[in-house]
Design brief:
By secondary structure, the chain is of the alpha/beta class. Helices cover 40% and strands 13% of the residues. Helix 7 links the parallel strand 4 and strand 5. The relative contact order is 0.15. The structure holds phosphoenolpyruvate and magnesium ion (MG).
Amino acid sequence: YKQKLQSLKGTANKTVDGIEIEINANIGSPEDIEGVLANDAKGIGLFRSEFLYMDGHALPTEEAQYEAYKKVIEAMEDRVIIRTLDVGGDKELHYLNIPKEENPFLGYRAIRVCLDQVDMFKVQLRALLRASVYGKLGIMFPMIATVEEIKEAKALLEETKRELLAEGIAVSEDIEVGMMIETPAAALISDVLAQEVDFFSIGTNDLTQYTLAVDRMNAKIAHLYNTHNLAVLRLIKMVVDNAHAAGIWVGICGEAAADTTLTETFLGMGIDELSVSAPSVLEVRKTIQQIDTSKIQLKL
Ligand code: PEP
Ligand code: MG
C-alpha cells in the first residue's frame, strides 16, 4: 500500500472533475524539510515557529530565527507560511516566567503574548521580513479572536517593515499576510476579518476544543472531542463562504486536514488548501484524486 502511494509522486492534487487543491505540509523546524520533499509537498502551510523558542533556555535571537526561516523558504519551491509565536496553552516557555493560570487555553497565549510583549514580537517580525527575500513567504497570526488584534498585529508588521527599509535592509514586496481561524469568535466574524488579510487557515484542533468546550489535552473527555461535530463543521463552512465572498483563499492546517473521512466534506465546502504532516501528503492526494466534487451532497 505504501508503495502504491509512492507512485502518486509527481501527480496533481486534482479531483475527478478537474478541481485542483493545494496540499502543503506542516513543520516544526527546518530539519523537517527532508521528509516534506520526500513526500512531494511543494509548500509549507504551517511552520509552527514556537519550536524554535522551546528548544533553548532563552529567546532565540533575530539571527537564529532569520537563519531558520531562510533555510525553509529557500528549500521550498512554493509558498512557506510561517506562524508567529504560539506559546501558552499546552506550550510552556519556562524562561518567560509566565505565572501558572487556572485556564491556560483561555489565558495568556499566542497573539495575546506577542501584542503584550511587543519588543519580543518585533524580533520575530524582523527575522521573518528579512528572510522574505529568499522566496515566497506567508506570515500568519495565531489565536485571533477580535478584529482589533489582527489590526494591531498588521500595524506592528508594517512598522517593522518601515524600520528595516529605513536601515537599508531589503524586504519582499509580495508577502501574504494571513491569520488562523481557531476561535469560534473569529469564525463568526470571518466576514469582517476577511477584509484584513490575504488568507485564512483554519486550526481545527483549537477550533474544535473551543467550540465544544472540550479540553484537547484531557484524556477523560477525549471521546467528546470531535471535529466531525455538526457545530464545528458549520463554523468551517461559514469561514469558507466568508473567505470566498471576500475573494481570499482558505485552507485547513489542523489535524482534520489529514482526516480522509472529511476530505469530501471539505472539498464540498470549496476549501482551497489542506496542510498536513509530511507522511499524510500522498494519502490525502490519493483521496482527492478519487473525489468528484459535482457529486458531493453536503449535509450540514
Ligand atoms: C490548530 O489549532 O488546529 C493548529 C493547527 O494549531 P496548534 O495545533 O499548533 O494549536
Ligand atoms: Mg492552534
